[in-house]
Amino acid sequence: MLLYLAEYLARFESGFNVFQYLTFRAILGALTALAISLLVGPWMIRRLTFHQIGQQVRSYGPESHLPKAGTPTMGGALILVSITISTLLWADLANRFVWIVLGVMIGFGMIGFVDDYKKLVVGDSRGLAARWKYLWQSVGALLAGIAFLSTAVDPSVEQALIFPFFKNLVLPLGVVGYLVLVYFVIVGSSNAVNLTDGLDGLAIMPTVLIGGALGLFAWVTGNAVFSSYLGIPFVPGTGELLVFCTALTGAGLGFLWFNTYPAQVFMGDIGALSLGAALGTVAVAVRQELVFFVMAGVFVLETVSVILQVASFKLTGRRIFRMAPIHHHFELKGWAEPKVIVRFWIITVVLVLFGLATLKVR
Fold first, then answer.
1. Neighbours of 237 (CB within 10 A)
2. Cα separation of 262 and 71, whole Å?
3. Is the Cβ–Cβ distance between 186 and 144 less than 8 Å?
4. What is the CA radius of gyration of the chain?
5. pLDDT of 86 strictly over 80
6. Contacts of 345 (CB under 8 A, 6+ apart)
7. Cα–Cα distance between 141 and 202 in angstroms, integer?
8. CB-based burial of residue 27 (10 Å sphere; 0-12 exposed, 13-18 middle, 19+ buried)?
9. What percent of the chain has pLDDT over 90?
10. For residue range 125-178, what is the model confidence (pLDDT) as tens digits?
11. How far from chain centre, in Å, is Cα 230?
12. Sign of CA dihedral 265, 271, 272, 273
């Protein structure tokens, strides 16, 4: 939005041309989202507390979580508002990728809102029924895939699976294969972040780190010179997603200010489902699904631990872990909550650096 104003003002003052630089707008996007989160956060926490929209703690979980009962939840709305406003202010609104990613984030946020509302306001501990949740997640993911397909500039690139470490190793997917990939990446990422969001700050910091890394991938993927030099596919327009990713980073850091241990607010499904879906959508846009899978290793581990736990209990009647997702397993083994959180952050830093290394090692 402000980009168009800057273009107009540049006719009279050349200094406004600085807003044409993507990196400059990306920095402003991060700072804007951070400022909104920090300024609006205290007010939102007070409102959530006033309306008694607080966390419900399971009696069979770690005893250390019992004092968290009543902590304001649905704070993820703060992240979504910060990202949306910042992106609309600083991104090129004529860019297709910006609208697709924003649409997915807001759409999955609405699913999370309904789930949180039924749990926390209506008092239905089941929340949104699983079949309806997955149905609407599936609809959102498939609509994103169709949007990508219908606006693709070069289908040979945008509908292929790109393998890291190899310059020319690509797997053409076709329309059906591509839609299946988009579905699993977006829906899987959305639910994986949601499963990880069980400790103070555990989910938001990896989201910030991965979002920042995906922003770098978006920047080089949308630049013909950089992409050619690095041997990665050139997808025109993806560079503008750098603004979205830096806005996500700024909003996430602002939320972490209130969500760090001991948390003043939790993001709830409205935040976890939407942020996970947004990360998956950006990964699809920049054609780095496999690298995203590596960088999101903590999210993957949390999801796999739940799958293994459920499968083992149904098949053998025994549990592999003391409790799933796996972060609760380590808590029950005696790890203090901050230790679990920080160690999972460190693992994410290593995995993100490994993912970034694939830019050059080809």
1. 18
2. 10
3. yes
4. 20
5. yes
6. 205, 206, 209
7. 25
8. middle
9. 70
10. 778 888 999 999 999 999 999 999 999 988 888 899 999 887 778 889 999 999
11. 25
12. positive
